[in-house]
Amino acid sequence: MRRASFITLVCAMLAVTVSLAWARSDPVFDARRAAEELRAATRALSDAKQARDRVRALSNVVKAYEDGLRAMRQALRQAAIKERALKLEFRNRREQLSRLLGILQTLEKASTPLLLLHPSGPLGTAEAGQILTEVTPALNRKVADLRARLSELQALQKLQKTALADLKDGLKGVQEARVALAEAIGRRTRKLPPRFASDPEKIKKLARNSDTLTKFASGLSDIPIEGVPETPQDFSAAKGKLPLPVYGTILRRFNEADASGVRHPGIVISAPPVSLVTAPFSATVRYVGPLLDYGNVIILEPQPGYLIVLAGLGRVYGKVGQVVSAGDPVGLMRGENPSAQDFLVETSDANSDIRQETLYIEIRKNRTPVDPAAWFEIENR
Questions:
Q1: How many structural domains does the chain have?
Q2: Which of the chain's termini has less CB crowding within 10 Å, N or C?
Q3: Residue 368 class from Cβ within 10 Å (0-12 exposed, 13-18 middle, 19+ buried)?
Q4: Euclidean distance between CA atoms 222 and 202, whole angstroms
Q5: For residue range 142-167, what is the model confidence (pLDDT) as tens digits?
């Protein structure tokens, strides 16, 4: 009984492991993988500038950069959380760590025969030897675990320094890709005449006289367009399968009240600034430009009787009558590209956050708004 209680006491005194349940993902590994994604996007940028379909190729490059930056941001967030938890754990267990270091120093200075001698004689010496034999493996495990935790902490701190260069290169590359994309879109738009004719004066007059988005969208449906798509698609068959125009999270759902209590028949997506916005389905551009207090707006008609409204963009691409394919760029989110330092400040300061922008989305069927959540793949957003 005495030997068992002594072993329990020693093992408890050596308990220095972190009690938190760590996530399986390794933020250092995730950051390295994100950095490689950014480098791959940089390599693809040169090829995209020479591609036959430059718009599509550059759109893919911009998305690759955005994916890499998003992954790096998430990795840095997880690294900061893990670093803070480790430091807190070490502070809380400072006394136990001191005892552990004291035991290690004693074992290093004392010889093994001396440690085995016991004043009660041979029997006590034998029991002491048995106790030491049982305690030593546990001690080694605790030391190894402590060494691993310290090494992990050093790796997390080093990550902050190495990530800065990767972030600067990635942010510079995505900006270059966005400029090249805008130029490619401009050249393509000038070369390709609209496949549909519309009355621009009527649309301008409608925009001036409309005091709500609902009134404008309903009036737009009354302005006829000429021609039909060469390969008309069934938009209703895409219900529940449409990708979101921008990668983000649902901030407000259909008819959910905003901060001022106003309800809108659409959804609001929160996304990083200057993110690329793409067409979720092949469609005809019915309107593009500023509207009311929504900022820049683009309205797409995927099929007669349906309208997709994307509002709140910082920049819009295309012109009325143009036909866009699914995945084609139609604009950029508002805001300015964050700096590499902004990413690091966000991860080091729990109260700091890179400002997100919002995109308002409506889908209208026969002039009546329908819940976009039923059309887009947003189950996990």
A1: 2
A2: N
A3: exposed
A4: 10
A5: 656 666 666 677 777 777 778 888 88
Residues 252 and 317 in one domain: yes
Per-residue pLDDT of 128-147, as tens digits, reads: 444 445 445 655 566 566 66
Same domain membership, residue 294 and residue 279: yes
Q: Is residue 38 part of a domain?
A: yes
Residues 171 and 204 in one domain: no
Q: Does pTM top 0.90 for this prediction?
A: no
pLDDT of residue 137: 61
- 215 and 82 in a common domain: no
Say whether 72 sits in a helix, a strand or coil.
Answer: helix
Going by their DSSP bridges, the two strands 296-301 and 329-333 should be labelled as: unpaired
Task: Let me know whether 228 and 319 are in one domain.
Answer: yes
SS3 3: helix
Specify the DSSP class assigned to residue 372: G
Structure tokens at 119: 């004043």
Phi, psi of 227 (to 5 degrees): 85, 170
Residue range(s) defining the domain that contains residue 348 = 195-374
Domain boundary among 122, 154, 189: 189
Question: What's 213-279 look like in SS3?
Answer: HHHHHHHHHCCCCCCCCCCCCCHHHHCCCECCCCCCEEEECCCCECCCCCECCCEEEEECCCCEEEC
Closest to 305 in 3D by CA, of 242, 249, 225: 225
